[in-house]
Amino acid sequence: MYSGSSDGESHEVTQRKIPPASSMPWVRNLRRFIGSGAGLGSEALMELETKRILLEIFKEKQQKNAEAGTIPSFYRKKPEEGSISHRVQRLAKYRFLKKQSDLLLNADDLDAMWVCLRENCVIDDATGAEKMNYEDFCHIASVCSEQIGPKCRRFFSPSNFMKFEKDESGRIAILPFYLYVMRTVSLTQARIDMSELDEDSDGFLQPQEMEQYIRGLIPNLAQLRDMPAAFIPTYCRIASQKFFFFCDPHRRGKACIKKVLLSNCLQELMELHQESEEEVTDTEQAENWFSLTSAQRICDMFLALDKDMNGTLSKQELREYADGTLTEIFIERAFDEHVRRGKSGGGSNAREMDFESFLDFVLALENKDTPEGLTYLFRCLDLHGRGFLTTADIHTLFRDVHQKWIEGGNYELCIEDVRDEIWDMVKPADPLRITLADLLGCKQGGTVASMLIDVRGFWAHDNRENLLQEEEEPEEE
C-alpha cells in the first residue's frame, strides 16, 4: 500500500517546493541591500556598528589569548569625535550620572531628615546635646524612608552608626551624623558635576574644565555672588591654579578628580557658601585663597609688579615682590626651575614669568609648610640639582640673606652659626647633606626655607620669642 515509489515522489516534490536559498534572486537582492547598509535607519546602523565593534573586541581577545606571554598594551586609542562609539560612550555616561544624581538627597530632603532627627532624639541631661541610640537610629531610618524615600536608607546602615563617637550609654550625637550626611551629598554632587565636565572620561580635569566648574559654582557661593562679571575669568584662573598646584604635583596639566574631592582646596572653596554675618577684616578674608578679597589682592600685586605692562614679569620686576626682601639667588633659581623658556629664545635674560607661573610662585611662598610648597622651594634651594643640600649650599644661599640683613641696620651675625642652627633644626639622616625628605620630616622645613630665601623670614625666626610673647599678651588681657 505504501510503495517505495510514492516515497520517492514525495521527496522529489519537497525538493522542487524549497529550492536552495542561493538560487532565489530575491534572497540575493535582500542580502545585497542589507549588506550595503542603504535604506537602514539610524537604529539599524547603530546595531550594525555595535555588532562590528563587539566582533572586533572578540577577535582582539582571541588574538591576545593566542599571544599569551607577550607584554600587554597599556594604551587604548580613544574613540574618534562624532563616531558611534563616542556617541554611545557619552550617552552611557550621561545616563549613569543622571541615575546617580537622582539618588542624591536634595535640600528639601535634607531639611526633612533634620526634622526627623530632632523629633525622635533624646536630650542628654548632662550636656543638653541631642543624641540617639541604635534603636532610635533604626526608628528614624524607618520614618525618613516613609517621608523622603528609599534613597536615604543607605545613610542609616549599622556601619555608619559605628563610625561616630558614643557616650557611656551607647548614644551618638545627631549633629555630627547630619553633617556627615550633608558632606557626603555635597561631595557626591561635586563628583557628578566634575565628571560631566570631564570630556574624555579619564577621571582627570584639564585647566579649562576646572575653570568651568568653578564658574558654575560662583552663583551658588554667597560670598562671590556680587563679583563683577568682568573679573570672573581672572578669578577662575586664580582659583583653578591652586587646585592644580596641590592636586597636580607632577605638573602634567590635569588634576585627578578623586584627589580634588579629598583636597583641602575644595573644602576651602566651599566655605564661601556661608553668609558673613560679622564684619570680617581684609586680613582675615585674604587668608582664604578663594575669597574675592584674596583674588583681587593677587591680581593687583601682579599688575603693580608688571611695570612695562606686557603681561609677564622679568627678574628685575619680580625682585620687588614682598618689598624686595627675597634674595637675588632665589629669584634666579625660581626662573631657572619654574619658568618656561619663551618660543623666541633669547637666552635666560629674555625669559619672563607669566601669570600662571606667578600664581605658583605666590602659592609656594604662602604655603611653605605644605609638601607641595616645600617641594617647589627645595628645587630652588638645590643649586646643583643633586637632590640634597650641603654646608656649602647653605653658606651660598644665606650669604644674600646676610647681606640684606646688614643693609637693614641689624647686628652682625656669623653665617657658620646660622648654618649649624639649621643643621640642628633639620637633624638630617645623613649628617653631611639635607634632603627634601629631611625637611619634610623635621616639621620645620618651611621655617628653614624662609631663613634661606627671605630676610624677613630670617628676622621672624630670630625674633620668634618676642613675637610669641606679643601674641599671648592680648589673650591674657
From TrEMBL:
GO terms for biological process: cortical cytoskeleton organization; microtubule cytoskeleton organization; regulation of dephosphorylation. Pfam families: EF-hand_5. Residues 185-220, 293-328 form the EF-hand domain. InterPro entries: EF-hand-dom_pair, EF_Hand_1_Ca_BS, EF_hand_dom, PPP2R3C. It is found in: Cytoplasm. GO terms for cellular component: cytoplasm; spindle. PROSITE patterns: EF_HAND_1 (PS00018), EF_HAND_2 (PS50222). One of its GO terms (molecular function) is calcium ion binding. Keywords: Calcium, Cytoplasm. This is EF-hand domain. It comes from Macleaya cordata (Five-seeded plume-poppy).
